[in-house]
Amino acid sequence: MKRYFCFGILVLLTLASSTFAQRKLPAKAYITSAKIDVMEGRPEEAVALLDSLFMNYGCHSEGLNLMAQIMVDYVTKAPTPKGKEPLVIKMVAYFDSLRMCCSDEKVDKKYNKDCDKLIEKADSIEVQFWREFYNGGLEQLTTLQEFSRELAGAADSQTMDFYRKAIDAKADTSIANMSLAIMIDSSDNRPYVAIGSILEGQKKYEDAINWFVKAIKYTDDSSSILPSIAYNYVNIDKYCDAIPYFEQFYRFNPADLSNATNLTICYIRCEMDDKAIATYKQMLTVDSTHPEALLGLGNFYRRDAGELIKSARLLAEEKKEAEAKFKREKGNILFDSAAHYYERYIRAYPDSISGYYEFGVINFILGRYNKAAEAFKNLAELEPSKVDNWISLGDSYFSLNDFKSAIPAYEKAVELTPTDKILWERLSFLYLETGNPSKKAEADKKLESLN
Predict the structure, then answer these.
(1) Which among 41, 39, 121, 61 is positioned nearest to 50, based on CA atoms?
(2) What pLDDT sits at residue 153?
(3) pLDDT given for residue 157 in this prediction
(4) Does one domain contain both 94 and 25?
(5) Are residues 152 and 98 in the same domain?
(6) To 10 degrees, what angle do helices 291-317 and 321-348 make?
(7) pLDDT of res. 20
(8) 96 and 17 in one domain?
(9) In whole angstroms, what is the distance from residue 169 CA to residue 179 CA?
(10) Between the CA of residue 119 and those of 32, 61, 102, 343, 359, what are the distances in Å?
(11) Which domain, by its residues, includes 62?
């Protein structure tokens, strides 16, 4: 077993207080006397005798096993996990020393008897204790989670204070038990994960990250741990630090599009747009209608197109026509790409307000007024009380010179904003163009009253 520590055989020795320490006795005498002391309830005297044994004879497998068994009894009787901690350290140290002693070929064979049996027993005891500590910590963690749910539903301050204190106490005890399990076997990742989860629940995100990182060292399958590290970094607004863990999980789980979406959010926060775009496109190979990917790509292309068009406008003002033309053409290509993804989005999600809006605006910019009108018509049906939808629909028809279709849209708009002079002017013009003098007169009268 891997551990935080590995003591040498004589590290824990103390000066023997027994009268036997004054002179060297046969090794068997120390063992026999120590066993009698243990049987008669004098473990401290047994420990002193065994210390003298090690001082005089060095490595002795039976003596180390007996010392470890004394520590086992101490650990069992200690009432709290915190009280068990120094005793577990000693117990494990003696078991480790036993294994080292048995594997040391330089040790006299008469001091290394029954090693296989003793090591098997040591392994069994440690496994038993590990399970006891881990399961105890797990049970407390379950209770901790139940208390957290009760706290979330508590209505009065007294109840909330009770559950907060109970949660803190259970968290401390669970962590202590998991720490004991780690002392016995530091190569099992589960106690590390449990401690990380407890600290995460307490919003101690950086501490939680440290424990999850430790857990990864001791597992061949880190898939369940990587997101925990990433999300805890997100919890403290360290999006760039979260990226390597989201990326690694994504490599293992390319079909997990929820994780991929979170990865793109981190990319965007860290201004890694190329990686975000590449991830969105990869997501669409798994799900061609994934909403975040379609909208994300549309938004990226729309943003870049807008910047190019703005740049073209500035170049035109500076009389740099060739450069302005190049920027406009490139911007229109990107607008076209944005429209492509927005169109895929609204086909998959026909009730999407944002999708229709973006699709309508871009097609209006590109002069595709038929498609713009179709988008704004759907948008007006989804949000009939929003005046801008009717105005955009009317503008689309107006740009198509479809005055008859533009009129009802503008009429709906003035119902919602009856004091908008620009709309009444537009309606007055349309009534004139479509040969409706009575309606034009009403519009002109309304304009006069507004003026």
Answers:
(1) 61
(2) 86
(3) 87
(4) yes
(5) no
(6) 160
(7) 42
(8) yes
(9) 15
(10) 21, 9, 9, 70, 73
(11) 1-113
